[in-house]
Amino acid sequence: MKKFIFICLIALTAALTASAQKYALLDMEYILKNIPAYERANEQLNQVSKKWQAEVEALNTEASTMYKNYQNEMVFLSQEQKKARQEAIMKKEKDASDLKRKYFGPEGELFKKRESLMSPIQEEIYTAVKEIAELRGYSLVLDRSSDTGVIYGSPKADISNEVLQKLGYAN
C-alpha cells in the first residue's frame, strides 16, 4: 500500500512538473517583414545576385556566339584552327561555370554576403526572444511560420509583437 501511494505521489509530481512548462509561438516571417534592416538586406542581396547573374550570362552568351561562329566557319578552317577554336570555346564555357560556382556555389560569394547581412539581424531576434522567454518562464518557443509541425497555436501564445517591441519596432 505504501509503495502504491509512493508511486502515485511520484506520478503526480511528474505530471505537475510537465504541465508547469510554458510554451510560446512566434511568427518569424512576420517579425522579419517588420524589420526594415531585413528588407534592405534582402534588396541588397537581390541587386548583387542580379549583377552577378548578368556576368555569368554574358560569359555563356560569349561562348554560345563563339560556338555558332565556329560552326559557320568550320569548313574553311584547318585542323589546327579548329582545335584552337574548340579549346577557346571550352575555356570560355569553363570560365562561365567557374564564375557561377564562385558567386552562387555552396560557399560562394552570395552565401557569404547573405551570412554577413543576415547574421546580425538573426542574432538580435534570438537575443530578444531569449530575454522574453526567460522573463516569462517559457521553456520552449516555436516558430509557427516554419514547417516544424505546429498545427494550431493560440494567438494568446504568440509573442511576435512583443519581440518586435523589444527590438524597437513597435507595431
Automatic annotation (TrEMBL):
GO terms for biological process: protein stabilization. Residues 1-20 form the signal peptide. GO terms for cellular component: cytosol. SUPFAM superfamilies: OmpH-like (SSF111384). The keyword Signal applies. GO terms for molecular function: unfolded protein binding. Keywords: Coiled coil, Signal. Residues 42-87 form a coiled coil. It comes from the Bacteria. Belongs to the Skp family. This is Outer membrane protein.
